[in-house]
Amino acid sequence: MDDRVGRRGQAVAWVALGVTAGLGWWASQMMGMFVIAAAAAVLVARPRLWRTAGPYGAVALFFVASAPFWVWNIRHEWATFWHLATWGGPLPSGIGDRLGRLLWPLLATFHDHFWDGRAVRLPEAVDRMWWLVLWIFYGPALAVAVVQVGAWVTRLARGTRPWREPLDLVVLAFWLTVVAHLATWFGTSGVLRYSMTFYATVPVLGAVALGRLARWSSAGAGLSAAFVALLLGYNALANVAFVADSAAMPYRPVDAAIQRMEALGLKACYADSRIAQVLTFESQERIECADFHGLRNYAFLRAVDAVEDPSTVALVTHQGLRGPAPDHLARMLDLIGARSEQEVVGQYVIFHHFVPPDLPLRAIPPAGWRASASFGATTADRAFDRRVWTWWQAPKRDGEWYQLDLGATRAVAQLDLLVAPESAAAPLGISVETSLDAREWQRVVDMPGLIAGLHWWKGHLRIDDSGRVLVRLAPRPVRYLRIVHLGTGEPGAQWGIGELFAYEAADRPDVPPPAAVAALAEARGELDHFMDDPGGPNPRRAPVTYAHRRAQVDWARVFAAVGRASAAAPDWEEVHHLYGIALNASGWATDPDEMVLRARRDGSWSEVVRWVELAESSRPEFWRSGREEALAEARRHLGEAGVTTPMGRPSPPSRRVSARFGRELELRGIDLPAKARPGQAIEVRYYWRALSHLSEDYWAFVHVQGPGLELNQDHVLGTSTFGTSRWEAGEETAQSVPLQIPRDAPPGQYRIKLGVWLPETGKRLRVTETDFTHVPRSVDIGTVAVVAPDRPAEPKPVAR
């Protein structure tokens, strides 16, 4: 942009700009703000340059220098442009949330995230100096960015170019960073490292502020020099503290841990990803250490899971990184009855050579069990119905309890709580109480904090994300068990039990039939394909790739195999455990009709039957033809075409009608009582047909107008979790809706009007065709006569 630069100098400048921008973009997308700022400044200040070859040469060099990243975008799904902009999911809906996620990294930058040793505890006098640094450097930096915007506005008002100097580019890059935080997920996921987004601009602006102060006057120059000395002194003191604090640490602390593990004969381990990666890399994979959930490298998790010798597998924790804390893990080992050896090497704590309890166990059949609970008592029996997709739940509040009557006294030695597919429903902590008579109770377990998912695997321990909780007890005569939740979670959080298994002491352990073992192995092997391509993303960190992950699994094969295993061993806990995990990975939803659609698309015909039956039994007020069609198709594929379809098809409507709303919906019938009494709840049944696929979940508004009284009975079409957006074109539905007549409703004829609308926008569908009396956006569907209640008969006089 400098007129003094000749043609040769400009050519060099364009080459430097293109190559530098490309390398910067490849290294970090934070460079994008500077690339955009430079392009905008050139476009505004020297638009004629765009008629030369320079900009286009720079653009070409930009793509050449950043080619590796473009190739990555084509071949991968993780860390792509789309992922960086969206974090794999929808943006926060509220502007307040976005502003909060912007201010956090900005304020973190101003506070103490501007030096790498911030984890060191500073002397109190030094720590308080950051307030001075904020006011003399970072605060003025922000002021420069704000003031410069005012300068741009002034220049524009005078008809001149807003951007003239290098400072304009830096300020423009600063504000583009702000916009990126607000408009995308760039830097707004709440991860600490995203405070770096302001590292490149804020220090430059702070230096500009000090320079302006120095030019103001001789006093300003002296003050600026003092501020610089204070700033550099603060950073020097912080770094000296960092060096002093780390001087006593080994140069490579992990080396001692690796040497000790090798001396113990340990060849594999599970650990938090930050520990597992270091152990694996620094040992040059002599020790294969997997993240608990395989998030970083699923191949390592497969390898560690496949180890047959339990004496060579360890759990490794760290006193600083924790995850979990060593003492916490030790308490959990006691909870499940495990014994182990423990090695402390610096901050590494290695648990190894695990010994399972030697007492054999046998599952107690749930027949005859009865349950009660402090919350949701009517659903308490779902915790042992051997259907893991139904559960009992209660708020995550301290003291909420679940009580089980085993029906007879048993020598209980272990309890296992399954919560998958809703793994977030694991309790925060639990206590377990036992009793023989439900009057006198003895507390036998008290565990305030749980590591859900800790379980035995091939003779050693591992942790998964199923939320399963194992509790080992000293065998004792027990008839009644009470599980009490310890701790209080976020408002609205629930804990629960999908399936509860109780085990008693036995002479020999239960051995599942070989057919069940083989079927479960087949299901587990197929489900394992969900995480194929271990270099790719984990779907929970990048939901945009979930469809790719899901498509790698033959879900029909998974669920068919689990079904065979369940039929062969209905009380085998591992079957229900794996089924819950498979449901979660397949995209499990709480709505059974949604699961009908999903299973039908997957060709999982046994699942279609299961979910249709659940939908029919759980929501008799709502019927849809899609269930009937799906069940009939499933019966054909299962070779049961001659089996009578047990569907709750509603009887024909008492009144067939036709009312079309837009091009989407048609009302085809109504069941409406002729009369009602004050205080009575009547049932109105609507019969709908979807004329085409609907993209929104519509509601019906029902206005009841009578003598001196008007009632509204708006309701969602379908259900709250299976609205019209899930209906297929041509699908028919029937829905019963209660209508409460107020006790003070005066007698007379009440006319009922009906329309279709979207509560979010207020949009109403126009009536396009009907045989009702109607206005443009509602129809009169009939009347109900409200009659006066019968007067009680007067008592007859008593003869004297």
- Quaternary assembly: single chain
Count of DSSP E strands?
A: 29
Q: pLDDT average, as an integer?
A: 88
Distance between the termini: 120 Å
Uncertain segments are none
Integer-rounded radius of gyration: 34 Å
Broad shape: globular
Mind summarizing the main beta sheet? 7 strands, antiparallel
Strand residues, percent: 15-25%
Helix vs. strand class: alpha+beta
Question: In percent, how helical is the residue content?
Answer: 25-40%
Q: Count of helices?
A: 22
Please name the defining characteristics of this protein.
22 helices; alpha+beta; seven-stranded antiparallel β-sheet; seven-stranded mixed β-sheet; 800 residues
Write the SSE topology:
Elements: H1 7-27, H2 31-45, H3 54-65, H4 67-75, H5 81-86, H6 95-111, H7 124-127, H8 129-157, H9 166-183, H10 202-216, H11 218-246, H12 253-263, E1 268-271, H13 273-282, E2 288-291, H14 298-305, E3 313-318, H15 326-335, E4 339-345, E5 348-355, E6 361-363, E7 370-373, E8 392-395, E9 401-418, E10 430-435, E11 442-447, E12 454-457, E13 460-463, E14 469-485, E15 494-497, E16 499-505, H16 514-527, H17 546-550, H18 555-568, H19 573-586, H20 592-602, H21 605-618, E17 622-624, H22 625-637, E18 655-661, E19 665-671, E20 675-676, E21 681-690, E22 699-706, E23 709-712, E24 715-716, E25 732-740, E26 748-757, E27 767-770, E28 774-775, E29 778-786
Parallel strand pairs: 1-2, 1-3, 20-29
Antiparallel strand pairs: 3-5, 4-5, 6-16, 7-9, 8-15, 9-14, 9-16, 10-11, 10-14, 12-13, 17-25, 18-19, 18-27, 19-21, 21-25, 22-23, 22-24, 22-26, 26-29, 28-29
Helix pairs in contact: 1-2, 1-3, 2-9, 6-9, 8-9, 8-10, 8-11, 9-10, 10-11, 16-18, 16-19, 18-19, 20-21, 21-22
